[in-house]
Design brief:
Strand content: 25-35%
Number of helices: 2
Helix content: 10-25%
Number of strands: 4
Distance between the termini: 27 Å
Order of helices and strands: EEHEHE
Radius of gyration: 19 Å
């Protein structure tokens, strides 16, 4: 029994994490931070396939409802866990993480045969 031939064109998968740290106040985002979040998400052009997560260190999910509502405007729900990102989360802040993956196959389609 032989093995299947390996494809000439190998897929390349790329993953990027984008972060935004927001100030919190009480149980929500600090004044003006919702607008900042909305602008950032708009500039990111959130779309199907993106993952949005919250990393709040050990403090508890402050501002979760506001962040979930903004992600919902793009048809996205919050992921259960945030990926590990560089840098510490300062007290009184919450980190929003957008994970975007893209796959491409160089040289494809190949109609030379």
């Amino acid at each position: 029994m032989g093995t299947a031939p390996e494809s000439v064109h190998q897929p390349i998968v790329q993953r990027n994490d984008y972060v935004l740290d927001l100030q919190t106040a009480g149980y929500g985002l600090a004044p003006g931070e919702s607008r900042r979040l909305a602008g950032w998400m708009s500039a990111m052009s959130l779309r199907y396939g993106d993952r949005v997560a919250i990393d709040d260190g050990a403090a508890g999910a402050t501002g979760r409802d506001e962040i979930a509502a903004e992600a919902g405007r793009y048809g996205l729900i919050l992921a259960d866990r945030a990926p590990v990102t560089a840098g510490q989360i300062a007290p009184g802040t919450v980190r929003v993480v957008v994970t975007r993956m893209a796959a491409k196959v160089p040289g494809c389609p190949d109609n030379s045969r």
